[in-house]
Q: What sequence folds into this?
């Protein structure tokens, strides 16, 4: 019996990144299974199955003596070698780079089954999450740094100015690898680009003095950071942005991203225009009632109850003359299929619509943003943008 590939260092067993678009899907899935068996053997996803656990337990390591005949000694030898391999920082960094490249190019994989594509992305994210769980080193964090540059347009004409944002897309932090707030998703990228391209369309050129802007489910903070860098170039009005989220780990990464883009400058009195805040949509604090001139939320609805909580939270926060921009990702396959319908449905029942000063919170406009090649996950088809007002 030959040794399973999971006992071989990732640097010598994973298919080269340049071949990801040409190797058979079975090769990619086998590589993911091997990484899962190596780095997270105690919490393998259902897609891996118990057979791989048995193989791993029986595996003869490439570093173990082939002359070993005592089964107990051989098992101890194999486990010792696996422990050393798991602790190898170079191999972990190599695996992180490979997994990140796979997720980034998932849309381009030659697959007809979108559910299969989604499963590959989920399995890759699962392994990345295990690295974060075990406090991956700085090399792994640096490999996930992303730089964005959005051209700024003035009255529809491109200028020489750009909004430049650097983000740390941290490996997923919990055993629940769907903790999406640590990643920058397609909706926030496409929408941030459009805000810079057409700020007038979103009312950004006519904000009231000392405008208060709140982002709900800010995640890595791309939308908030884009606004913080865009607004001073198109308006002289003062403003403040509050980037909110529910997960403490997400907020910690968000604070890191804000510090990266707005470093402390001891020689100036410049105040960072963004602060962070923990916010539970189901119980928004009383002191935030009717304080927001503008709300943003991008790709934050993943269940019907999310849409209702989000609507009621927005009603609590939004001033009577405020605007709420909600961006929902359209997925036509997988467990999140139909989510845009739940978001829209939350604003259709007249009896459930929140009221304020004789007005109801309604969707007054909607339009579609096309998915851009190389941006977002493979299961993303397009993005629906809703403009929501008190009317």
A:
């Amino acid at each position: 019996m030959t040794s399973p590939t999971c006992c071989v260092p990732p640097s010598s067993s994973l298919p080269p990144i340049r071949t990801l678009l040409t190797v058979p899907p079975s090769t990619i899935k086998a590589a993911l299974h091997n990484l899962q068996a190596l780095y997270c053997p105690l919490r393998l996803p259902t897609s891996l199955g118990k057979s791989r656990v048995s193989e791993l337990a029986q595996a003869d390591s490439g570093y173990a003596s082939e002359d070993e005949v005592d089964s107990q000694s051989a098992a101890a030898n194999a486990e010792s070698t696996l422990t050393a391999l798991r602790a190898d920082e170079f191999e972990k960094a190599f695996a992180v780079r490979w997994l990140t490249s796979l997720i980034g190019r998932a849309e381009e994989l030659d697959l007809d089954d979108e559910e299969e594509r989604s499963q590959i992305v989920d399995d890759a994210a699962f392994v990345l999450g295990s690295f974060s769980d075990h406090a991956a080193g700085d090399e792994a964090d640096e490999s996930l740094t992303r730089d964005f540059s959005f051209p700024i347009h003035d009255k529809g004409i491109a200028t020489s100015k750009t909004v430049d944002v650097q983000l740390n897309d941290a490996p997923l932090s919990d055993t629940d690898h769907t903790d999406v707030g640590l990643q920058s998703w397609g909706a926030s990228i496409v929408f941030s680009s459009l805000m810079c391209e057409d700020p007038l369309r979103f009312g950004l050129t006519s904000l009231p003095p000392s405008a208060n802007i709140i982002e709900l489910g800010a995640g890595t903070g791309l939308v908030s950071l884009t606004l913080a860098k865009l607004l001073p170039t198109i308006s002289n009005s003062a403003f403040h942005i509050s980037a909110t989220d529910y997960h403490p780990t997400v907020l910690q990464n968000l604070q890191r991203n804000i510090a990266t883009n707005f470093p402390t400058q001891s020689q100036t009195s410049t105040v960072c225009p963004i602060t962070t805040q923990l916010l539970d949509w189901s119980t928004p604090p009383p002191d935030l009632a009717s304080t927001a001139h503008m709300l943003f939320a991008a790709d934050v609805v993943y269940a019907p109850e999310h849409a209702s909580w989000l609507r009621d939270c927005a009603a609590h926060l939004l001033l009577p003359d405020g605007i709420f921009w909600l961006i929902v990702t359209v997925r036509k396959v997988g467990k999140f299929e139909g989510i845009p319908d739940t978001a829209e449905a939350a604003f259709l029942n007249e009896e459930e619509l929140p009221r304020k000063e004789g007005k109801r919170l309604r969707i007054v406009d909607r339009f579609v943003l096309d998915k851009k090649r190389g941006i977002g996950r493979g299961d993303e088809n397009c993005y629906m943008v809703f403009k929501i007002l008190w009317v």
In short: The chain has two domains: 1-41+77-139, 144-263+272-390. Residues 1-5, 43-69, 134-143, 172-179 have pLDDT under 50 and may be disordered. The beta strands are 145-154, 157-168, 211-215, 239-245, 274-278, 292-298, 318-330, 355-356, 359-370, 382-390. The two ends are 71 Å apart (CA to CA).
